[in-house]
Design a protein that fits this description.
82% of the residues lie in helices and 0% in strands. The protein is extended. It is built from eleven helices and no strands.
Length: 291
């Protein structure tokens, strides 16, 4: 009886100590969270004030007119609503060019991502000592925005869809390569061991042992990236990379009197993004469901 009472008395202080330590840790986390929130608000405020001063204090004057331009576009679109279907047909070839840019860049970037991911996955890499450099290469590719790469390529190659395709493909290789490598890390190594035991080389082990395991997730991520690349290729048209974005830039440049073209292009882009979003979501769900 004495031993049991001593055990109970010793357990009570331990529970109290654990509870006190937990409360102290919670208070510390809340304090650090509050400090970070204050710092974030201070940085945002100072950054906004600096940007506003660089803009000659024009933000507060301009914010009141934020809906003026969309109102002009909508008003002119209502007046010329009967012309919009014909304009949509007119700009449809440019839309096809934009989708082609996105599709080609996704395919090329996806193939590059497959190679980079296999070379940068620990346990699968052909050259284990180069896993770090290949990972840093993917970091660089996805860190540089597509528009920056496109501007450099346009200066070198001239305007057109090719610089946009290369820029989006490089960014896609970095982004998908990171996602693919994370998927590769969950692949079972038993098929690789079996293939190695019968004399398969590295390429054969990857194609026959790894790809069948990870292909559904790879395709799912590639479809998601295709949606993103459609938006990116439309945006790059503003810097002279062709496609529907280039027509939208020209329509904006003409100003009032051509806003019906702006409305038609916006409708085309919106419908295209919704269509491919729904289509890729359907197939992504089917692919992931098979895993």
């Amino acid at each position: 009886m004495v031993d049991t009472s001593l055990a109970r008395n010793s357990a009570a202080p331990d529970t109290a100590a654990i509870q006190d330590a937990y409360l102290a840790m919670t208070r510390t986390k809340r304090m650090y969270g509050g400090i970070m929130l204050v710092i974030f608000i201070a940085l945002m405020t100072s950054g906004f004030m600096l940007a506003d001063s660089r803009n000659a204090g024009g933000f507060w004057d301009g914010i009141l007119n934020i809906f003026a331009f969309p109102g002009e576009v909508l008003a002119e679109a209502r007046e010329k609503v009967t012309l919009i279907p014909a304009l949509m047909v007119k700009f449809f070839p440019s839309l096809i060019e934009t989708v082609n840019i996105a599709a080609a860049s996704t395919l090329i970037g996806g193939l590059m991502a497959v190679v980079l991911s296999l070379l940068s996955t620990r346990g699968l890499a052909r050259f284990p000592a180069l896993v770090g450099p290949f990972r840093r290469l993917m970091d660089i590719l996805r860190a540089v925005p597509e528009i920056v790469i496109a501007l450099v390529l346009i200066f070198i190659l001239g305007g057109g869809p090719v610089p946009a395709m290369i820029a989006i493909a490089l960014h896609t290789a970095g982004a998908l390569g990171k996602l693919f490598s994370e998927v590769n890390e969950n692949a079972s190594l038993k098929p690789l061991e079996g293939l190695e035991s019968v004399g398969a080389n590295w390429t054969q082990r990857m194609i026959l042992g790894v790809v069948p395991q990870v292909a559904p997730n790879w395709l799912s991520y590639a479809l998601l990236r295709f949606e993103i690349n459609i938006r990116a290729s439309a945006i790059l048209g503003f810097v002279g990379s062709g496609g529907i974005g280039y027509d939208l830039k020209n329509a904006f440049s003409w100003g009032q009197g051509r806003y019906d073209e702006v409305a038609a292009i916006f409708i085309l882009v919106f419908l295209t993004i919704v269509f491919f979003d729904q289509l890729s979501s359907h197939y992504r769900n089917k692919l992931v469901g098979k895993v």
